[in-house]
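Title: Prediction job returns without error message
Component: structure pipeline
Severity: low
Priority: P3
Assignee: unassigned

Description:
Job completed but the reporter wants confirmation the result is attached to the right record. Sequence as submitted:
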Amino acid sequence: MFVIKCPHCFEAREEEEFSYGGEAFVARPESPETESEENWGDYLFMKRNPKGWHWEMWGHSTGCRKFFVLKRNTANHTIVGAWTLAEARKIYDAEEAIA
């Protein structure tokens, strides 16, 4: 179990109060009408599952009910931070530009 601090209501709570929303920043196909079934299948079902640092969507389901992004190490549950969607996108894009 680990503790998450919601960036909206600033409450630090145990993970049971939150809902995992999947991988953050998955790019939606630009033209869904012309996308192949294989590409749609990849978009819907093929997600990263790294051992190590991962950007994740979470919802504060028993608190403010808002969604946010956190960066968590999947091996040891260390959390670097939790941000609103807009704040996290800037940080994520900056990291991706370096990589």
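Comment from assignee: result matches the submitted record. The chain has a mean pLDDT of 92.
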